[in-house]
Amino acid sequence: MRKLLHSIYSWSDERLGMTGLLTFAGKKTVPQHRHSFWYYWGGISLMFFLAQAVTGVLLMVYYRPGPDAYESVRQITYDTNFGWLVRSVHSWAANLMVAAIFVHMFSVLFMKAYRKPREFGWWSGMGLLMLVMGFGFSGYLLPMDELSYFATKVGLGIPASLPLFGPKLAALVRGGLEVNEFTVQRFFALHVVVLPALFIPVLMFHLFLVQKHGNALPPSEERKPAAERRSVPFFPNFFMKDMAMWLIAINVLALLAAVFPWDLGAQADSLKPAPVGIHPEWYFMSQFQVLKIIGRLAPGFAGELLGMLIFTAGLIGWFLIPLYDGNSESGRRARRTTWFGLIVLAGFIVTTIWGYLAV
Ligand code: HEM
Predict the structure, then answer these.
(1) Which CATH number, 3.90.1300.10, 3.40.50.300, 1.20.810.10, 1.20.1050.10, labels domain 34-271?
(2) Which end is more exposed in the chain, N or C (fewer Cβ atoms within 10 Å of the end residue's Cβ)?
């Protein structure tokens, strides 16, 4: 048996060159220091994404976009064996994934892992975050219950109020003047075809960069003499710990999905007034609240335009971080970038809580 396995391996190796890859993987090491815990969060985000992909395909077996969308989600939740669980895992994993990405992004920021040569890691990561937000926004509407319907209506009202292309763009995304079954059809195409087709190559590029450059050392470790720095082989040491973290993350996901099954509200009715307490997902709450505050200070079109300008400037600022603080020699820029990150993080938390208190 051993001989047979060996000859199968040699035969494949001659054609695929696996030994070279294994030797390469065997040489990879991961730095060990008191901030190493933060190295797990990219992997945890990846694990939640895989859970999303598997449960998403299962949901697609029964989900029917279009006028029947709500009824199909009702059947998945109440009539299909384990349908409620698959739906609950999909929705919980989406939220946990966004949370894990935030932890990953801010830890990368505070460990200064965006510095040369990892700039493209930061930019591709920003691309992934925006695509994930797109997954969240498009997925939220799909059940067509009251909350998702009215929240999407409010969300699409923002671009609709912008000058020039705003109304045209909103009508294109909605598939008409109103949010209805045509919008569901478009959002479904976005959610299961367009966004995955964009997300997967960007993710591959991101992971390729991690392999190419290895994990960055935080500045506190970089200052130490090389002889004092410690590292462990990626395989099997770090890989096993990575898997242990995945196991913990899967347990958290399973527990939340089973104990707090994802709710399905009443069917959306466009003729009814919007129920009280309409709000977007938690990761859009901060932007929603900031727009509300600006709207109060500068009512009407001026406020909406100002809001858009602030978000665009913030996004450009976030994008430019690696160029501004790409050089570990400049202490002042490093401190300013850390402060910028802390202010954004604090602002995000405060406005999110404020948003929930205000609905
Ligand atoms: C779906 C979303 C994402 C996935 C699956 C993902 C995955 C990963 C993985 C597996 C790693 C290597 C392990 C680690 O350092 O944690 C990593 C590293 C990295 N990620 Fe992400 N990531 C995502 C989003 C982001 C975002 C939003 C940013 C920042 C804007 C980002 C920036 C980086 C950088 C700069 C590194 C290199 C860190 C280092 O060298 O220590 N990633 N990512």
Answers:
(1) 1.20.810.10
(2) N
